[in-house]
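Moderator note: this is an archived Q&A kept for reference. The question asked for a predicted structure of one protein chain; the sequence and the answer are reproduced below.
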Amino acid sequence: MPRHPDPDVEHRILAAASRLWARGGEKSLTMRAVAKTAGTTTPTVYERYRDREAIKKALRMKTRRELFAALNRTGTLREAIERQLQFAFENTYAYEVLFDDVGRHPSLHEPWPSFNLMRQRLAEEIGGTPREHNRLILAIWSLMHGTAMLVIRGGFEGILRAQAIHSCLDAVEGLTYAATKRKRFRQSGPKWPANLILGEAERSSLGNGSDRPIETHARKRAK
């Protein structure tokens, strides 16, 4: 009898990879271990994912889709932040993978739908276009992610956890209120460079000329 392909194998592989990350971090994420945990063979894993980095990318993209789906049901920036924190606490290891080297290739050059959604929510609340608020949304994003990591890695529980969450939310409201009153976010240091683009997949750039994807360099050489 011919063998029929298993339609659920990719889901099992990613679920296994997530469990392995939860148990031992990146060092436990070997192709052989993923195959064993998923109840399949190492060649089957290689048929679907070239290497460990390909599995990590698949985990990131899966988590981004799930996070965006959760945030997309919110109506305000505050609700979106509350929902992202909740998502982080309910999916701690997937959330850590999501932000692992987020500012570097390849993660930098992948879409950040939740970042863009929050930037859009911010623009709706205080006016202007989303790109006008890059510095402010980065500050808010940093506050939110820092709070999530303090709770997750720092073991914040009970009253301390509640205070951390509400301190974050209060700080965000203070920042947005101040930006609304002044009609702009007071900035220190250099202005946001036009070539510093975040969250827009292949368009994303740190603006230093060395952060473009390897594929982009290859395309340039081929021309």
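Archived answer notes: Confidence is low (pLDDT under 50) at residues 214-223.
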